[in-house]
Automatic annotation (TrEMBL):
SUPFAM superfamilies: Composite domain of metallo-dependent hydrolases (SSF51338), Metallo-dependent hydrolases (SSF51556). Residues 72-437 form the Amidohydrolase-related domain. GO terms for molecular function: deaminase activity; hydrolase activity, acting on carbon-nitrogen (but not peptide) bonds, in cyclic amidines; metal ion binding. The keyword Ion transport does not apply. It comes from Smittium megazygosporum. This is Amidohydrolase-related domain-containing protein. InterPro entries: Amidohydro-rel (IPR006680), Metal-dep_hydrolase_composite (IPR011059), Metal_Hydrolase (IPR032466), MTA/SAH_deaminase (IPR050287). The keyword Zinc applies.
């Protein structure tokens, strides 16, 4: 089976430019009825989906037509937690086997050498990997700003890549001398943090439907900023109507720190600070207690589940089944590349399914539920209703995987489940905001080979600056 394709490759979607995806073996809509349409089509005008259905429901001509016989079409995956700069420090020898706090204190001295150029290339590296794995929207929790780095570096890279982006203005203000975890050399003054956060919101935040760039206020974690900064951040976010994000209840040391320093559980701490609501999502919550579970459900507070990272750092198994049963909004995150060390979103859905089963039995999470967390769940977590499903009026964010591959062979009876149970490999097409950013398996917006070369050069430079044992290739 071949993919028939008509029309020129997309440069950028003109407002009225039309794109038809037709003849797909199955289109997974994640719409209200959770329809899975056999022999499905999706018709797109500009950046918006106009119709989804069988051949009879959808116009059969367009400026560009892609025949998808032998393929599965899903809503673009939504990554709710990442630290893209960490792609420069994957598999660092001394950080391969430690738990969260040991892992962090090994990496901080390396990260202090990061530069704006490194940040741009690392962001592109993460985004190429994400896009090839079906991701169309990503957040990035950027909390380290040495050597003139600004959040603008990440936003510029995202714009070049064509990725829908929630840029989290992270921060750290409590260094070792004040009882925190990071070295003093990489923490910022709280007034500077708040002023810069205000600046990036005013410069970049787009609150409109279909926004490609949103800013999020995101102190790194309760153990790296003061209670005052947490409160001031919440007030700032609400002043502008932007979301809030941080790490919470990640492992036992994190709980210990909270009890020792605040005399409160993480859930009680964030409740008292105003860090709950539909505009807040917390990463991990592996150790969220019953009180926190009820609190998050009642307030529509979101959780970003990062199963690979939780396994990599031995943090534990987040109670996702119970969270879903309680009505908590759960999204999926790959987390930073120093604790995953991969940005494979469809692979992460598989990890979520497997890890819940290790903890809570084989019925804890189905393949379709894992896929729903990775799409609709992510949209709710990011406080959006314009992405995460394929339906008229939704933004045209779509991932297409080939079914007739060796790793999927033998699973034709249920290609939707196979996407999570098997290893589907990279997408053939990835469409973001109507733009084809992966076309016939190739990234169209940047030169992938050149990004890899720059990334490896920067990574080696970082290793050398940090006196880390490194082998040049
Ligand atoms: Zn993280």
């Amino acid at each position: 089976m071949t993919t028939q394709d008509s029309g020129p490759p997309d440069v950028f979607p003109a407002e009225n430019r039309t794109l038809l995806l037709k003849n797909a073996d199955v289109v997974v809509t994640m719409d209200k009825e959770r329809r899975e349409i056999r022999n499905g089509s999706v018709y797109i005008e500009g950046n918006t989906i106009v119709s989804v259905g069988t051949e009879a429901d959808v116009p059969q001509t367009a400026d560009r037509v892609i025949d998808l016989e032998g393929h599965i079409v899903i809503p673009g995956l939504i990554n709710t937690h990442h630290h893209m700069f960490q792609t420069l420090t994957r598999a660092v020898p001394n950080a391969q086997d430690g738990e969260l706090f040991k892992w962090l204190t090994t990496l901080y001295p390396i990260w202090k050498h990061l530069t704006p150029e490194m940040m741009g290339v690392a962001t592109k590296t993460a985004m190429i990997e994400l896009m090839l794995s079906g991701c169309t929207t990503s957040s990035d929790h950027q909390y380290i700003y040495p050597n003139g780095i600004k959040l603008d570096d990440s936003i510029e890279a995202a714009r070049e890549m064509g990725m829908r982006f929630h840029a989290c203005r992270g921060s750290m203000s409590v260094g070792v001398s004040k009882g925190g975890l990071p070295p003093d050399s990489i923490v910022e003054d709280e007034d500077v943090i708040l002023a810069d956060t205000r600046r990036v919101i005013e410069t970049y935040h787009d609150s409109s439907r279909g926004a490609m760039t949103r800013i999020v206020v995101a102190p790194c974690s309760p153990f790296s900023v003061t209670e005052k900064l947490m409160r001031d951040s919440a007030a700032l976010a609400r002043e502008y109507g932007v979301s809030l994000h941080t790490h919470l209840a990640e492992n036992d040391s994190d709980i210990e720190y909270s009890l020792k320093n605040f005399n409160k559980t993480p859930a009680k701490y964030v409740e008292d600070l105003g860090w709950v609501g539909h505009d807040v999502w917390h990463a991990h919550c592996v150790k969220l207690d019953d009180y926190g579970m009820k609190l998050f459900a009642r307030t529509n507070t979101g959780v970003s589940h990062c199963p690979s990272s939780n396994m990599r750092l031995g943090s534990g198994i987040a109670p996702i089944r119970r969270m879903l049963d309680s009505g908590i909004h759960v999204g999926l995150g790959v987390d930073g590349s120093a604790s995953n060390d991969s940005s494979d979103m469809i692979g992460e859905a598989r990890q979520a399914l497997l890890l819940q089963r290790v903890g809570f039995g084989p019925e804890a999470l189905t393949a379709r539920q894992a896929l729903e967390i990775a799409t609709l769940g992510g949209a709710k977590t990011l406080n959006r209703d314009d992405i995460g499903a394929l339906a008229p009026g939704m933004m045209a964010d779509i991932a297409v995987f080939r079914l007739n591959t060796i790793s999927m062979a033998g699973a034709n009876h249920d290609p939707v489940a196979a996407l999570v149970f098997c290893n589907p490999g990279n997408v053939v097409y990835n469409i973001i905001n109507g733009r084809v950013v992966v076309d016939n398996s190739k990234i169209t917006t940047v030169n992938e080979t050149s990004v890899i070369e720059q990334q490896n050069a920067f990574s080696y430079q970082l290793a050398t600056l940090s006196n880390m044992t490194a082998v040049p290739y």
